[in-house]
Design a protein that fits this description.
Elements (H helix, E strand, L loop, with lengths): L7 E4 L2 E4 L4 H5 L11 E5 L7 H7 L6 E3 H14 L12 E3 L8 H16 L7 E3 H5 L16 E2 L6 H14 L2 E2 L5 E3 L1 H22 L11 H27 L1 H7 L3 H7 L8 H6 L11 E2 L9 H16 L4 E2 L3 H8 L1 H8 L11 H9 L3 H12 L2 H24 L6 H5 L9 E5 L2 E3 L2 E4 L2 H8 L5 E9 L4 E9 L12 E6 L4 E10 L5 H47 L32 H30 L5 H26 L3 H6 L4 E2 L7 H7 E3 L21 H20 L2 H12 L1
Antiparallel strand pairs: 1-2, 3-4, 3-19, 5-6, 7-9, 8-9, 10-11, 12-13, 12-17, 13-20, 14-16, 15-16, 15-18, 17-18
Helix pairs in contact: 4-17, 7-15, 7-16, 8-9, 8-12, 20-22, 21-25
Length: 739
């Protein structure tokens, strides 16, 4: 056989096989697996037909592997007559494409015809996916459908049906292909093991008379004893205590006040109080009455104890003495020990009577026969399943391969890839590369290696209460307004809208435009921050000065002015003259300090002017053709490093870590280059032909920055000229002379 000729397409920076024909599909097991894009993917989170994924997951472990794809291809080669049937998207399966040359093909073809016949379309030449899915009526005439599960309706008699229902109660139902509850071989075997241990335990009692002192009546007698054992023991203990102290009897027997209070309400409400009392009146060495003067709350239990336990052993008696009580307990000691050794099985829920009945006739042979008869139809039922499998693969296998062996659907953008969950609308953009995430922290740890800017969003549908997490890739625009807490809308593949809120961001460069503007935005933010800090500092100084002035003024106003001095009295002969008060000295003007500050200001202005004059002179001294090159050079010097770094990182964007974090096994470096990345995120644009009015009545006044720039250049040039001609020094000396 000639080797298959493969064709490849270059996308994402690597070669991907083109799978376009049925021949390509059936030859995939010959293609070197190193050329496959993926080697495994999870079933969960895939935006694909769930039934198709189920038939491809051969071991039902929740993952589709390359080996399972290859096994499916080998099976298709056996059952298909025309491999090109795999290239259609028709939900029908023509019988003409099924091979009659292989046993596998003939088996599927016969099952397809049986399905059509059961639906009353025996002459039809196509089977639909709906026909192959709804196969319950194929087994309408029998309860045996090959799944090894037997419902109660399949039982040949009422006893077996009751047994099956009992086992469903004990072990839970196994679902039959028809949807009925039933039992399988595992449940039947568990039942057999449980009933065997119960029967062995039961047979031990039959061989030891001490275990069954009353024969078959021992069980009822022992249960009656257990019901009153603690109460009888308590009665005799209280009687012995009253013999030791008469006060104990008085305390144990209720007085008239107790019964008087009880008589004021219905007796049914006092049952708990009565059951807490002794079985009979307490007195020293008093036997327990079995018929008269008993606590009425215990009458039923005591009657059963007397008839089932006391009478068969002690005979007819009206009371039970303290010496008789230990004899009764000893008589049932062996039986008590035997019951303690009862096997603990799930079938105990059926009760001892039902278990004893089943121990005599387990019915296990009948169950095994029914299950074996059902399994005899397994091949027939499996062939019916294969009809559905073939119908699903005919429609869906080729698209799946173009999302597994190659990522053609993703890179050609003919349709959304299986891992794309929908579209996120946020910050004037729509992001097409969104993947479902189960654990945000775990996913982000791996996905950061993709070098893609990711925004993790929690998505909710308030109407249904559903919640999920997605990771959205931003590959165009900038990240200025992307932050945790922003809200957006997510549309899934079914068109359902979800409220989305950003909960985590993995930062990486988004676009070259962002990298170009980044230095200028950083400079603008720096200047803005510095201006804001300066304004805050000046505001604080002014606030402090104003507060100090107000405080000083208020303090001066509060103090009362001193009274005018009285005329000096004539000095007495020999009195000392009053001391003269010296006026406050004025602070001298520090001309040196003032001159230094003014000189520093002049030097700063001169330096700035000189720099501007030098730059302007150098630029104006260039030839006309050199000026644009100088401007470009300045721009490159500012934005170049940022753009180079961003360009390198953008070229390193890789889809593989984003999918590996979700459980995929990506086998290639699936790159997302700059042009392709730009196509995954769409910026807001006006539609073609839209009319746009620029007359905004609320537009802010335009700042005449061109005039301000020209004035700044003129002032700077003049200041530089003054500095270079010595004008600043002359002005400084003139000011000093005036002062």
């Amino acid at each position: 056989m000639a080797a298959h000729v493969w064709r490849f397409l270059r996308a994402g920076g690597f070669d991907q096989v083109r799978i376009e024909s049925g021949a390509d599909v059936l030859a995939l097991d010959e293609l070197d697996m190193k050329l496959w894009v993926a080697l495994a993917c999870p079933v969960a989170g895939m935006e694909f037909d769930a039934k198709t994924l189920d038939v491809l997951d051969l071991d039902h472990d929740g993952r589709i592997r390359a080996s399972e794809i290859i096994e499916t291809i080998k099976w298709l080669r056996l059952v298909l007559k025309d491999p090109e049937a795999l290239t259609g998207d028709d939900p029908t399966l023509p019988l003409s494409v099924i091979s009659e040359e292989t046993p596998e093909g003939r088996r599927v073809l016969a099952s397809a015809r049986r399905i059509l016949a059961s639906r009353g379309n025996a002459d039809a030449d196509t089977v639909t996916i709906e026909d192959a899915t709804d196969t319950e009526h194929v087994f309408d005439q029998t309860d045996f459908n090959g799944d090894g599960v037997v419902p109660a309706s399949a039982a040949p008699d009422a006893d077996t049906a009751r047994l099956i229902e009992d086992l469903i109660t004990v072990y839970g139902p196994a679902e039959d292909r028809s949807g009925k509850p039933g039992i399988d071989q595992e449940r039947a075997d568990d039942y057999a093991a449980g009933i065997a241990s119960f029967r062995a335990w039961w047979d031990a009692a039959r061989t030891d008379p001490a275990i069954l002192p009353l024969g078959e009546n021992t069980h009822a007698a022992f249960l009656a004893l257990l019901a009153v054992e603690d109460k009888v023991a308590d009665y005799f203990q209280r009687c012995r205590l009253s013999a030791f102290s008469p006060a104990a009897a008085d305390a144990a027997n209720p007085d008239e006040d107790f019964f008087a209070a009880m008589s004021q309400r219905p007796l049914i409400e006092s049952q708990d109080l009565l059951r807490g009392m002794a079985l009979a009146e307490i007195a020293p060495d008093r036997p327990l009455p079995l018929a008269e003067r008993l606590n009425p709350a215990w009458r039923a239990e005591m009657d059963a104890f007397r008839d089932n336990t006391v009478k068969p052993i002690l005979g007819e008696t009206a009371e039970l003495g303290q010496a008789d009580w230990p004899r009764l307990l000893d008589r049932f000691a062996a039986h008590r020990a035997w019951r303690a050794g009862r096997p603990n099985n799930a079938i105990d829920v059926l009760g001892e009577a039902r278990l004893a009945e089943l121990a005599a006739n387990t019915g296990k042979e009948t169950l095994d026969t029914l299950i074996a008869e059902d399994k005899a139809h397994e091949d027939e039922a499996s062939a019916i399943d294969d009809v559905l499998r073939l119908a699903l693969l005919r429609r869906n296998f080729l698209p799946l391969l173009n999302n597994f062996v190659s990522f053609r659907e993703f890179y050609t953008k003919r349709s959304s890839a299986t891992f794309q969950a929908g579209t996120l609308y946020l910050d004037g953009r729509s992001c097409d590369l969104c993947v479902k995430v189960s654990d945000v922290a775990k996913h982000a740890a791996m996905a950061t290696l993709s070098r893609i800017y990711l925004a993790y969003c929690e998505c909710r549908r308030p109407m249904t209460g559903e919640t999920m997490f997605i990771a959205a890739a931003f590959t165009a625009g900038d990240s200025d307004q992307l932050m945790v807490g922003r809200n957006g809308i997510f549309y899934d593949r079914l068109g359902q809208d979800w409220d989305a809120v950003v909960v985590r961001i993995v930062e990486h460069p988004i676009s070259m435009q962002q990298a170009f503007l980044a230095p200028y935005k950083q400079l603008g933010r720096f200047i803005g921050e510095q201006v804001e800090k300066l304004a805050q500092a000046k505001s604080k100084v002014m606030h402090d000065d104003l507060s100090q002035a107000i405080t000083t003024t208020a303090t001066t106003a509060i103090k009362a002015p001193a009274p005018a001095p009285a005329p000096a009295a004539p000095a007495r002969p020999g009195a000392p003259a009053p001391a003269a008060v010296a006026p406050a000295a004025a602070t001298p003007f520090d001309i040196g300090r003032f001159a230094g500050v003014f000189a520093a200001i002049g030097l700063a202005i001169g330096a700035i002017g000189t720099a501007l004059a030098h730059v302007a002179g150098t630029f104006l001294g260039l030839a006309w053709w050199q000026m644009p090159l100088a401007i470009v050079g300045i721009i490159l010097a500012i934005s170049g490093p940022s753009m180079v770094i961003a360009y390198v990182k953008l070229r390193q964007r890789n889809l593989a870590p984003l999918l590996d974090a979700n459980g995929w096994a990506i086998n290639a470096r699936a790159k997302i280059n700059i042009p392709f990345g730009g196509s995954l995120t769409h910026l807001a644009k006006l539609p073609p032909g839209a009319e746009r009015s620029l007359n905004d009545p609320y537009a802010e006044k335009q700042v005449p920055w061109r005039l301000y720039l020209a004035l700044l250049i003129v002032i700077g040039g003049a200041a530089a000229a003054i500095w270079l001609t010595g004008g600043v020094e002359k002005l400084f000396h003139r000011l000093v002379s005036l002062l």
